[in-house]
Specification:
The chain is of the alpha/beta class. It is built from 14 helices and 22 strands. Among the domains are: 291 residues, no CATH class; 48 residues, no CATH class. Pfam families: Amidohydro_1.
Length: 531
């Protein structure tokens, strides 16, 4: 059905236009000054509300099955993915039929990186390259997979050998441009950013964590600072902005709540103050700053995290109007999305209606009354009902047999259950070896112990050097097991060699300072990180 928004203030992507009557017909915006007496339309009263263009997140990784639905629920109608395998991209258009339309996604497919470089540590078989002569073939392969742009990892923070070199960087950018694709370059430090700009990069992904040496080089550059993920990395214990927000939390999926409870740590030789100053310096130099979250990283959630990003951009010196443009008209212009990012006649009706005035208080973007994608309303109530039903289904599921006493395994019968496995390090890409056996040990609490013999590969860099085992809570736990009554996991271990005991729950990130494993039996406990 067509929609008529009455008495509404419109942020058209550039400025606020008060007291508008916006008519949407056949998925397109017809006018901002319609006759209010329209027949056969769905009416949306905009009194005291602001109508925004659908929000655009310029840096995401949407690997969760319903990520595009959840993004849409929180007003992100377009997402620009910076690394997802093609098989993940294939699921983006599915969503939930009862909720309706999903966020529209563009992707880079796989990023360009070297063997052992960044993006090889996630347990995905990532194609790599190390020589400029391979650049054209790499770009062609990504385009064949559906890449709308090319993502390149140029990051020397772990050593030159774990980054593509400058010659390969230049070759990749030239190959991308020859195929009419923009080149997005991931950087961590300012020196790498300067090299990327000189090489012809179209966008810089991430604000550097150290100071710009010559901000004048940023004239005409485009930067996606990803303040959300950097803030979370600098302040790993301040992850409640989204998780505890009363406007956002009720519609967060359990997967998102779990991930928002995760943390990661940026080395303390750098500071978040420097990151914020780099954003200010980039803007003073004339760079375009876009809003992007790096969703998929710890402490992020599809859609919801963009509202944190907007608040962080304002804290870094942007006005609310500028921050809103960074998530609407600016990325639409940079990425050539001519049919969206603004509210104007003839454009696609990707719209977000919020209660209040986000041009005065940017946090009002969280007060969402409705979301429309190509004129179709996203049924946020249906999403909430889906979440409630899922909680009922999973929370009402009986706990795994034998879990009531809390014992996972004591190996007292001299055998190891088949749910113990050795593949954990392989998932993370570590080249290690593990063998499991159960042996009698009079000093062990049960008289038997699981013996873990390891050969840890010397990986270094982005690929973790570790060996590990994993335990599946059920024989088939693709949807998890109901262990809501349990709040921690304890492993009793000893080692004759220097060893760290890292206990994680649901493949979570390890604690910052894992304990050393002593030569005599001692327990190590990890609490679950979910809220």
């Amino acid at each position: 059905m067509d929609t008529l928004f009455t008495n509404v203030t419109v942020f058209d992507g550039y400025r606020a236009v008060p007291d508008c009557t916006v008519l949407v017909r056949d998925g397109r915006i017809v006018t901002l000054s319609a006759d209010p007496d329209q027949p056969d339309v769905e009416r949306a009263d905009g009194l005291g509300r602001t109508l925004l263009p659908g929000l655009i997140d310029s840096h995401v990784h949407l690997w969760a099955p319903l990520a595009t639905t959840e993004a849409a629920v929180f007003g992100v109608t377009t997402a620009l993915d910076m690394f997802s395998p093609p098989e993940v991209a294939a699921q983006w258009g599915r969503g939930l039929s009862e909720v309706g339309p999903v966020a529209d996604v563009r992707t880079a497919s796989y990023p360009a990186t070297v063997p052992g470089g960044h993006c090889t540590e996630f347990g995905v078989d990532v194609p790599t390259l190390s020589d400029p002569v391979d650049a054209e073939a790499f770009v062609a392969a990504r385009i064949a997979e559906g890449a709308a742009y090319i993502k390149i990892i140029y990051d020397t923070t772990h050593g030159d050998e774990l980054s593509i070199d400058e010659a390969t960087l230049v070759a990749l950018i030239e190959a991308a441009h020859a195929q009419h694709r923009m080149a997005m370059v991931h950087v961590t430090i300012a020196a790498d950013a300067a090299v990327a700009i000189a090489a012809g990069a179209d966008l810089l992904m991430h604000a550097p964590v150290d100071a710009w040496q010559d901000p004048s080089r940023l004239v005409g550059a485009v930067v996606v600072p990803t303040l959300t993920t950097l803030y979370n990395g600098f302040f790993p214990h301040k992850t409640g902005d989204v998780l505890d927000d009363r406007h956002l939390r009720p519609l967060l999926s359990q997967d998102s709540r779990d991930n928002l409870g995760q943390t990661w740590q940026i080395p303390d030789r750098w500071t978040y103050d420097t990151v914020e100053e780099n954003v200010r310096a980039a803007r003073r130099a004339g760079a375009t700053v876009l809003a992007g979250t790096d969703v998929g990283m710890p402490a992020t959630a599809p859609g919801a995290s963009l509202h944190q990003e907007l608040a962080l951009l304002v804290h870094a010196g942007m006005s609310p109007r500028e921050a809103l443009a960074a998530a609407t008209s600016a990325p639409a212009a940079v990425f050539g999305l001519r049919d969206r990012g603004r509210i104007a006649p003839g454009l696609r009706a990707d719209l977000v209606l919020v209660d209040g005035d986000p041009l005065t208080d940017i946090r009002h973007t969280r007060r969402i009354d409705g979301v429309w994608i190509a004129g179709r309303r996203v049924d946020r109530d249906a999403w909430g009902a889906h979440l409630d039903a899922r909680v009922t289904t999973t929370g009402g599921r009986p706990a795994p047999a034998g879990s009531e006493h809390g014992l996972v395994s004591d190996f007292a019968d001299g055998t190891a259950e088949t749910r113990w496995g050795t593949g954990l390090h392989a998932i993370a890409g570590a080249n290690s070896k593990v063998e499991l056996s159960v042996e009698a040990d009079a000093t062990a609490p049960s008289g038997h112990a699981l013996r873990i013999d390891t050969e840890v590969g010397d990986q270094g860099g982005f690929t973790p050097a570790f060996a590990g085992v994993q335990f599946r809570t059920t024989a088939d736990d693709a949807d998890g097991a109901n262990l809501t009554g349990k709040h921690s996991v304890t492993v009793t271990a000893r080692s004759d060699e220097p060893t760290l005991v890292v206990v994680t729950v649901d493949a979570g990130f390890p604690p910052g300072k894992p304990p050393s494993c002593p030569s005599s039996w001692a327990p190590s406990t990890a609490r679950t990180c979910c809220r």
